[in-house]
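User: Assemble these into one structure.

Assistant: Restating your components, then the assembled model:
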Amino acid sequence: MAVMTYRDALNEALREEMQRDGDVFLMGEEVAEYDGAYKVSKGLLNAFGDRRVVDSPISELGFAGLGVGAAMTGLRPVIEFMTFNFSILALDQVINSAAKMHYMTNGQIGCPIVFRGPTGAALQLSAQHSQACETYYVHAPGVKLVTPGTPADAKGLLKASIRDDDPVAFMEGELLYNLKGEVPDDDDFVIPLGVADVKKEGDDVTIITHGKMVNVAMQAAQKMEKDDGVMAEVVDLRTLRPLDVDAVLASVKKTNRAVYLEEGWSYVGIGAQIVSLVQEEAFDWLDAPILRVTQADVPMPYAKNLENLAKPNAKRVIDACHRVMYR
Amino acid sequence: MTTDTATESETMADALHGVSPDTARQLLNDMLLYRRFEEKAEEAYAIGKIGGFCHLHIGQEGVAAGCIAPLRDSDYAISAYREHTQAIAKGIEPKHVMAELFGRVDGCSGGKGGSMHLFDIEKRFMGGHGIVGGQVPLASGIAFSIRYRELDELVICFMGDAAVNQGGFHEAMNMSAVWDLPAIYVVENNAYGMGTAFTRVSRNPIDEKALSYGIPATVVNGQDVLETYATFTQLAAKVRAGEGPQFVDVRTYRFKGHSMSDPVSGTYRSKEEVDDRVEHQDPIAILRDTLFEADELDQATLEEYDAEAKEAAQAAFDFADAAELPEPDALYRDVYAELNPNGRLFFDGLDRPDFAR
Ligand SMILES: Cc1ncc(C[n+]2csc(CCOP(=O)(O)OP(=O)(O)O)c2C)c(N)n1
Ligand SMILES: [Mg+2]
């Protein structure tokens, strides 16, 4: 195992997949000469040249659509959005073209493309730059959604996403890029899509989550264990479509109590879907209603004190766990 | 004798681009304030008083002073995220801009917007927008509204050079042209969008983009604030006369990094290039020297202006630093303009103030 940052893990995954398959190319704003706005693509221009690592104009709708067209003819584009906030400009091509291509062509034309970049809030970037965009993408059948929360998952899942034959939205986190963790040395380390990971075992309560919030869930679980011996199980979904429903149900059937933690808004959020699934398929195992911990239902404010109030944190997760345990 | 005097004053008027010495001195005053304000913001960012992104306008002050000074209070201005000095130019007090950068309740957006989202409806400063190009269609909408109500007003819309590659820009240009909207679209052409040189992402020059929609386009040296001022005075008159939109490619240069956390130079532009521009293309130095040469400014006056500018910047800092943080209840305030008596608007399961039940 090598210890590396989430950023370097992504970089390795890109590098390995580009080496492996000459049809893989990277396009986006500042990905080449500037080494990436967050340095994820560092050194790739040098390694692969400007045919395969392409700086785009600030034209999200245009280069997302260009990527879809390239994918329709067999290339495997990795389209970087500087952040997913800006991908909202490109959603038409994602939802109306990429998501529907394979279906409306009766399977004649596929769309093996990856849209990647950071989602969610960093620090004090205010309303237009602090949005968790998962729901927009996962809502449309035809798109897959991957949200790694650790360096190992970042690497293994990005490689799988690039190899996948469907459009995959791959959502990272600005505040994750410097996170360090162990990554297997295996030079072909791939994590299949659709497999959740139990990040911590426990039998008192299940915290289900994805993406950056995995780390907040772990903090909460560790603190509960230390402070009052509560053993929380942390289920990291890792991919939201395909969704490892079995893993969710297995954990809920073990603990009988669950909390969903997500960075984004609650209304029609990811947690809403999970709650619906669990009550449909494991109602009799539940000892308490499932609670959700989310961002406050407001656009992200700039002021530090308000931003802190708006964001989910470990304390809120602990409170929610206590409530579902009636403590 | 008489001929000599005439020639002399003509030459002087020429050097000042027909701008009166008083106005020219005022522009110098304005730009000094903007420079000192931005330097103060830089300082505040370095000690953690300002968070998030902070995009300074240093080097581009002429594009605030020269473009906005010719306008009226009743005209609207809208911009992107590099807008601190334009907000001040449009009449927002520096202290209310600084307080916004600090995220305080006395900021012009109540501390909720921050550096990228400065707003003041009374001063008709319409933001402060963070999505590249996002403000351009909004400007066309403001212009549509002015024309709809048959008012003697206009909107000035600032954007960076990189914004002209957004689809929304092109759609908005076309509609403005077709409907003769009273707008001046200004590209602050500092030659780079972050680390990408404009010439790497566009085959044709910026003014051609507007010309292709039938909008008259002018190229201006934005480091010469007098030329800028004179041009915008004329263009505003044309727009007011009902001639439809105008487009200006203002050539300027960013002296600092893209935002506070970005390097000033690097692979995308050399240190020599930046140093050369700072030395020879500083809009404040250019105007100062023009006024010196025309005998319309002396060293003592210049120093007095600069001392005032520094004082104003410090006063803005002190005000912002002493201002309160927003009340916790502000988190839920203004998400909606109207809180309906029936049905639920908020869904986060958190403790909320009564008005957001
Ligand atoms: C739609 C969108 N894409 C990307 C970004 C990230 N970004 C912020 S500023 C910027 C460069 C813009 O350059 P330009 O328009 O020339 O303005 P300047 O910064 O030079 O003033 C980029 C890529 C963004 N804010 N919005
Ligand atoms: Mg620029």
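Residues 2-183 of chain A form a domain with the Rossmann fold fold (CATH 3.40.50.970).
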